[in-house]
Amino acid sequence: MSEIPAELRYASSHEWAKNEDGTVTVGITAHAQDAMGDLVYVELPEVGQVVAAGDEAGVVESVKAASDIYAPVSGEIVEINEALEDEPELVNNAPYEGGWLFKIAMSEETDLDNLLTADQYQAQIESE
Amino acid sequence: MSETKLIFQLSQPGRSAVSQAPKAVAEDKLSAIPAHLRRQQKPALPEVSEMQVVRHYTNLSSKNFAIDKQFYPLGSCTMKYNPRGANRAAMLPGFLNRHPLAPETHSQGFLSCMFELQNFLKEVTGMKGVSLAPMAGAQGEFAGVAMIRAYHEARGDEARTEILIPEAAHGTNPATAVMCGYKVREVPVGKDGDVDLEALKAACGPQTAGLMMTNPSTCGVFERQIEAIAKTVHEAGGLLYYDGANLNAILGKVRPGDMGFDVIHMNLHKTFATPHGGGGPGAGPVGVSERLLPYLPTPMAGQRDDDSYYWVDTDTLPTSIGHLSAFMGNAGVLLRAYYYARSLGRDGMIRVGEFSTLAANYLLKRLEAIGCTAAYPDRRASHEFILTFAKEAKELGVTAMDIAKRLLDYNQHAPTTYFPLLVPECFLIEPTETESKEALDEFVDAMAAIMEEARTEPDMVKEAPFTQPVRRLDDVKAARELDLTWSE
Ligand SMILES: Cc1ncc(COP(=O)(O)O)c(C=O)c1O
């Protein structure tokens, strides 16, 4: 069973979100990267772009598939993980650490409440 | 089998192959080309003898997995037998030596074949007009959605910015919509493989330019609510696009025009048995309903009152979305398809639909009986069907990819794997009507043996293949470090 850190929040579309004083770091879960297989390309949003929760904010591509990344919360993109341009495999190797995708300055704190807890996400992937 | 060198690695200065050598070109012909456009250095072509060329490519071709050698149940690709007669017809010198710029009077035979092919395809699909111009399925899609766009724009309806696409769709569908300047909105597919009609209703609105659908869908089942779907999209003012990659299942049985579609592309290199694979030349004709007739891509074959044929081009059809390539489609592929259609006739086409569906359902039932899991167990297959190995992946650690690789050792081409993305660890299996029952049974035997191996020797299956010129290829490296140019 893949790792699902208890302190993070999750979108049903398999992104994780970590809130630090209103700045939310976003990545894809260990389960998602495992289902995708080895990534070959990551497309990230632009810094400064304003997104609403549920908007497309990037694409991850593996040899098997391409999959959209959705912003789990609304706000402005303040930082992207530039290392992924040359090393998309970071997402496979460390989905919750070096493989983070982007950071959002959250505009609606309540967006977080709409995300799943670790237990709820665990239940979702078990039912899939 | 030993590792084959690249033809470049066989090169020795001064060697040449007489029959491959270019004819000497007289200097006065070259002088028409301005000096600055002529290359200064000779191209770095391999210098090899004729014998080396023949041996090199014969050896390579024998390493291929190919429809001429093996069962090839690649789902969504319709790898059926390519009749040799069609090839012979397309290779007649009168066709081969016809220059695309030759005057119409010199091309009457070719034009008449193309005119008739347009009419056959109209009849087969129930559409009002057909253009043979697109050179692949994806280009047919591009032409189709460009016509949808031209239609809305001609009516001044600029608010339509979205194309709806069911989540099971082939990747070329969303790519096409984006190429044509649209936003893609995904429509969910239910557990039974049918589109979620309520979700579709909620997604439709004044922003809807159209819906792209494959029916039978890429889930290998016939969409049962197609009439309700057509009504929903039409009521919202959108047009209906039919991805005809799966036409084989319904050939002679149901017509997209009768289902209410406005535009369709066909993959003649699938349904009409022309050779394909490896990105080779294709043919993706488009058919349209009445309201899209003005926008068909050119050139098309037209017939005058005196029965002579001519090229319909943008001078006679100025509303056309225009050319998609320098000339009209891939002539040789279209001729093969023409021969195929003529040799089958109406009754033959009906039998194609029936036998491709029968072959798929027979294979599905037999594979279920040996313990494979169908993705849609309650549905009858169309001409293809999906198995899922999610259970094997979880319990035995043997994935769909491992089973696919092991099939090669049993001399069976692997089915399409991991498509559609919707179904985890899946195989999409399409046997086609041209396979015998014995060939289908051999595939079942191979699958039964592999399912047993997965239980008893999973580690071995994970290492497969063992009998091929290469083991597992590094797909990731190939994608990340694509390098297609030879250099020392
Ligand atoms: C469902 C579907 N649509 C479209 C296409 C695109 O056709 P082509 O490969 O000729 O561009 C394919 C091809 O595999 C397909 O399976």
Features:
heterodimer; A: 128 residues; alpha+beta; OB fold (Dihydrolipoamide Acetyltransferase, E2P); 6-stranded antiparallel sheet; 3-stranded antiparallel sheet; 3 helices; B: 488 residues; alpha/beta; Aspartate Aminotransferase, domain 2; Aspartate Aminotransferase, domain 1; 7-stranded mixed sheet; 17 helices; 10% strand; globular; binds pyridoxal-5'-phosphate
Summary of the model, kept short:
The complex is a heterodimer of chains A (128) and B (488). With 128 residues, chain A is α+β, with helices and mostly antiparallel strands.
Could you explain the architecture of this structure?
Chain A has about 130 residues and is an alpha+beta fold. Chain A has a single domain (about 10-105, about 115-120), classed as RNA polymerase II/Efflux pump adaptor protein, barrel-sandwich hybrid domain (OB fold (Dihydrolipoamide Acetyltransferase, E2P), Beta Barrel), CATH 2.40.50.100. In chain A, about 15% of the residues lie in helices and about 35% in strands. Chain A has helices at about 30-35, 90-95, 120-125; strands spanning about 10, 15-20, 25-30, 40-45, 50, 55-60, 65-70, 75-80, 100-105. The longest helix of chain A has 10 residues, at about 120-125. Chain A is globular. Chain B has about 500 residues and is of the alpha/beta class. Chain B has 3 domains: about 5-60, no CATH class; about 85-345, Type I PLP-dependent aspartate aminotransferase-like (Major domain) (Aspartate Aminotransferase, domain 2); about 350-480, Aspartate Aminotransferase, domain 1, CATH 3.90.1150.10. Chain B has helices at about 25-30, 50-65, 85-90, 95, 110-125, 135-155, 170-180, 195-205, 225-235, 255-260, 270, 330-370, 390-395, 400-410, 435-455, 460-465, 475-480, and strands spanning about 130, 160-165, 185, 210-215, 240-245, 265, 285-290, 300-305, 310, 385-390, 415, 425-430. Chain B is globular and about 75 Å long. The mean pLDDT of chain B is about 95. The interface between A and B is small, with 12 and 8 residues. Pyridoxal-5'-phosphate (PLP) binds next to helix 6 of chain B. Chain A: Its cofactor is (R)-lipoate.
